[in-house]
């Protein structure tokens, strides 16, 4: 780990989380360094953002974030780590996401492989359908599904 990597991962703190790749996920995301965020995923890692199908692969994840995450500020608060079979790790992080037009509570669910790479992440908005409809950006159309908590 380089000193720059160490600095990025240690300056960002989430109660209950020490996993470097998760700390770096949030620090690079908030810095707008979406290539670095995508590099934290396994080669065929998958990101499941709200209202979207799974985004597969580092290049696709970086492109998606470049287009959709420009004004997002993630504010993770706390997390829980659970060991899974085959040395996989599941990490749940709760917090808030701020955009230029709203703030909403969020649950991030990560699955990491043995090398600490992100295999899968689900990003779930913790809001009612009514709340989501009232805060959606005016230039986007969404279908609200039962997947939202």
TrEMBL record:
Residues of the SnoaL-like domain: 23-79
Protein name: Nuclear transport factor 2 family protein
Pfam family for this entry, one: SnoaL_2
InterPro entries in UniProt: NTF2-like_dom_sf, SnoaL-like
Superkingdom classification of source: Bacteria
